[in-house]
Design brief:
The structure holds two protein chains of two kinds.
Chain A (H helix, E strand, L loop, with lengths): L3 E4 L2 E4 L5 E7 L5 E7 L5 E9 L2 E4 L6 E3 L9 E3 L8 E8 L9 E2 L3 E5 L1
Parallel strand pairs in A: 2-11
Antiparallel strand pairs in A: 1-3, 3-8, 4-5, 4-9, 5-6, 7-8, 9-10, 9-11
Chain B lengths: L3 E3 L4 E4 L4 E7 L6 E7 L5 E7 L4 E3 L2 E6 L4 E6 L8 E9 L7 E4 L3 E6 L1
Parallel strand pairs in B: 2-11
Antiparallel strand pairs in B: 1-3, 3-8, 4-5, 4-9, 6-7, 7-8, 9-10, 9-11
Classes of the chains: A mainly beta, B mainly beta.
Chain lengths: ~110, ~110
């Protein structure tokens, strides 16, 4: 299994540009998550999904959109990029509703908005 | 008050030392607790879950005190390879369709030769 994969690894955007961060998992996990991590800070939840067709906002959803058309894929869309969105973005997945289930993370996308 | 609060660190310890990290959480309805490890510029990875009875995995011991809403991680006989940031993570009730993990800001550990 490849686990959780993310593309691209790095990206520099200009203010106002848009982009989609890709995330895919091959573990047949129902739950998927997008986090951002600013330097020296913990992870903040942006959006999550409990299955195909179902998404919910997390703690910091403004400026982002997501979709979940398949179990495997959970892309994150940035519209009108702003410098405040400079961060490292992690996608994660876990099997299901068990409270002890481990979350598996992708390697991250480092985004800079200039 | 932060939902999950950790010792600010950084901790710089010599090889072989014992080091302890503490964490407090705000929501008494939280159900599960974890320590994740994050190496520099890498993704977090699960180190261990934390159970009410306390649990041990080799040199690592985790403790949970529900009454005080407090979690700890003890590392004995520190190795150079233990150098990383340790994230306290709590599974809290949320208003959405699923419980969510809430992450502390992390405690940085550097083990010195």
């Amino acid at each position: 299994n490849a686990g959780v994969t993310q593309t691209p690894k790095f990206r520099i955007l200009k203010i106002g540009q848009s982009m989609t961060l890709q995330c895919a998992q091959d573990m047949n996990h129902n739950y998927m998550y997008w986090y951002r991590q600013d330097p020296g800070m913990g992870l903040k939840l942006i959006y999550y999904s409990v299955g195909a067709g179902i998404t919910d906002k997390g703690e910091v959803p403004n400026g982002y959109n997501v979709s979940r058309s398949t179990t495997e894929d959970f892309p994150l869309r940035l519209e009108l990029a702003a410098p405040s969105q400079t961060s490292v973005y992690f996608c994660a997945s876990r099997p299901g509703t068990g409270v002890d289930n481990e979350q598996f993370f992708g390697p991250g996308t480092r985004l800079t908005v200039l | 008050r932060k939902e999950v609060e950790q010792d600010p660190g950084p901790f710089n310890v010599p090889e072989g030392a014992t080091v302890a990290f503490n964490c407090t959480y705000s929501n008494s309805a939280s159900q599960s607790f974890f320590w994740y490890r994050q190496d520099c510029r890498k993704e977090p990875k699960l180190l261990m879950s934390v159970y009410s009875s306390g649990n041990e995995d080799g040199r690592f011991t985790a403790q949970l005190n529900r009454a005080s809403q407090y979690i700890s991680l003890l590392i004995r006989d520190s190795k150079l390879s233990d150098s990383a940031t340790y994230l306290c993570v709590v599974n809290m009730p949320s208003s959405g369709s699923a419980r969510q993990l809430t992450f502390g800001s992390g405690t940085q550990l550097t083990v010195l030769p």
